[in-house]
Amino acid sequence: MNHSVRRVSLILTSVLVFSALAGGVWDTAFASGKESALSTRIREYTEVVAALEEWSVDEVEQNDLVFSSVDGMIRTLDPHSSFFAPVEYSDVRDKQAGSYYGVGLLVSQRDGRVVVVTPMEGGPAGRAGVRAGDVIAGVDGKDTTEINYERVTELLRGPSGTSVEVTVQREGVDEPLHFKVTREAISTKAVPASFMLDPETGYVRVTDFTHTTESEFDTALEKLTDEGMKKIVVDLRGNGGGVLDAAIAIADRFLAKGQLVTYMRGVTPDSNFDFHAPGEKPRLDIPVVVLVDHGSASASEIVAGAIQDHDRGLVVGETTWGKGLVQSVYNLRYGAGLALTTARYYTPSGRNIQRDYSSLYDYYSSEETNPAGRPDSFETATGRTVYGGGGIRPDLEVARIERPRFAQLLEARNVTFDFAVAWHARHENDSAEITPEMLLELERFATERAIAPSEEITRAFADPELRPELERMLSAEITSVRDGYAASYPWRLKGDNQIEAAVKALPDAARLAARAAGTAKSIIARTPQKPSADSASKM
To answer: Looking at residues 467-476, what average pLDDT do you find?
Structure first.
């Protein structure tokens, strides 16, 4: 395609995307024969694009120009309105759907290599023989050292029923291994772990709110109930949100039928909705603690806020992110997408938990969420005071205690993972119980890697206070290599001070829920003021 034709194509694409959003403003501007301010700006834009393409000393990639400029335009609105290029939008839809087509491998980039963290249970790559710790050396004959990590993951995905050849280097095997794997639908895990913390306490980890979260959560509850669960910790730490329906469904398991979960208010009446617990499934009438941190956002905050406002349980951990803006997702032409903020959501007591974003730098970098003395206070069902405008403040604030520095170093340099892969290759059928001899092997392994001066490594391994942490880390990695990442969660959470605090808070959660059940007070959500025209662009 020559330069002039490409330029017309580029301009036409941007106009079509804009026209879809502007409701025909472009057509109206030119049908009248008068050049409006809007049409003038668009003409200026196309002139800039043409000049860049023709005169820039660097080669101009057309998609990058248009997509980055559209993205910049959207970013002037608020932190969460987003434009997605076709490839990005495909990934977003896959995540929300809870599935994608591929080979079923969880991989990561470590020391410049693409390493298999774990094959997904029942996935085609695992069935073919790919193992945790395998280094992906080639995909369909392409050397992975010559392409970037994103390209490797892209090559592993593809239409269902198509085949891909995966070449791996395996610890203890001299020659590369070749696997022909047929791609198929792969379900991603929104609930990757559920197990009993003690004979009566269940634990459920929810990492995303997707279209499969509800069914995965129900499966976890059924399993734990069969194992004797009488109280539960729901871990939403690091869960950035997702599909609203999934959040409503999770809250519904703990609230009474008809109780308000959240409500939305926007500029137009079409943006105003109230969402109540549908009560379609049996209520889980046991004590509950919801565990959150600064990475818990959006749908996670809806669940935590509803349980807190109705005094159904306690929220433990750290103040959440503070995202109270609702994005409506629009399908654009040519496979692109737009997530546009159209409303704000509120907790049942009337809290808007959205943090101030007048400074985007502070919004993304600061741990501060709700300034002291903020006046927007609200009452829960039993009359407790809660605050809006800065995330969900836990009922019990518990800062995470960081692992020892040397343990973090071992993890960051992949020492325990790589050692577990090498050890398992030699002891596939042996007991994985951690012995003094294994720790000596690990020490020599770390010394050979030169991750720190040898004196420091010797001192760390001799430290009796660090020894339990080394045993925990090694047990987690060997379990992950042998049985899959999900099986290693009990080891990874061992000694987690926030988990321990959540378990201790369960009796208080039970007493609070009993008080709430005995009160005649019901939460009637306040209807906040409709945003003014001046503030509408920052909803």
So the answer is: 94
